[in-house]
């Protein structure tokens, strides 16, 4: 029976080929890192990918992330006040919960299920073919709400955050 690593490598190869991409060691290492570390920053993904490919350069990771994102294999998210983060959960309609204190990000399924789950008023959307709505919910994660984690951790956004209780709604058209 093939090892877990061998199965994951084959899955990564199939994913890249299905997206019309060449299979390269850097792309496989970055794809594995994104799968293993959802909502991670580029720096965190560099560290994770280097566990599989120690000679991997920063530029190779940036290039792989761009190619994987452009091909729709990886999704780039950037909550307000945060650096870009990446996830492998694509082709579904989900949103994000972001903790104001520690910056952690959690996926939340859309209750409607179909994209877009929100549409602007008819007059505002005239002429637009809306196909996606990106929603970010802001608040405190359970640990921060209970006061068990320190604010200002490594994932804390570095710029201003939205007001308490607000939701960020961005509508994107691909």
TrEMBL record:
Region (Disordered): 149-174
Location in the cell: Cytoplasm
Pfam families in UniProt: FUR
Entry binding sites for Fe cation: 114
Low complexity: bias regions: 149-159
Cofactor(s) needed for function: Zn(2+); Mn(2+); Fe(2+)
Protein's GO biological process: negative regulation of DNA-templated transcription; regulation of secondary metabolite biosynthetic process
An annotated GO cellular component: cytoplasm
Cofactor note (record): Binds 1 zinc ion per subunit. Binds 1 Mn(2+) or Fe(2+) ion per subunit.
Principal location listed in the UniProt entry: cytoplasm
Protein name (Swiss-Prot/TrEMBL): Fur family ferric uptake regulator
């Amino acid at each position: 029976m093939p090892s877990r690593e061998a199965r994951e490598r084959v899955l990564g190869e199939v994913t890249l080929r299905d997206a019309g991409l060449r299979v390269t060691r850097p792309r496989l290492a970055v794809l594995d890192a994104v799968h293993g570390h959802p909502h991670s920053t580029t720096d965190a993904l560099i560290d994770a990918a280097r566990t599989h490919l120690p000679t991997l350069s920063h530029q190779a990771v940036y290039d792989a992330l761009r190619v994987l994102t452009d091909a729709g294999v990886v999704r780039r998210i950037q909550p307000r006040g945060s650096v870009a983060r990446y996830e492998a959960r694509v082709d579904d309609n989900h949103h994000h919960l972001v903790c104001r204190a520690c910056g952690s990000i959690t996926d939340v399924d859309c209750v409607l299920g179909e994209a877009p789950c929100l549409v602007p008023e008819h007059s505002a959307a005239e002429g637009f073919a809306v196909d996606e709505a990106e929603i970010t919910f802001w608040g405190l994660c359970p640990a921060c709400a209970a006061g068990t984690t320190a604010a200002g951790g490594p994932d804390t956004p570095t710029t201003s955050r939205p007001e308490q209780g607000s939701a960020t709604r961005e509508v994107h058209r691909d």
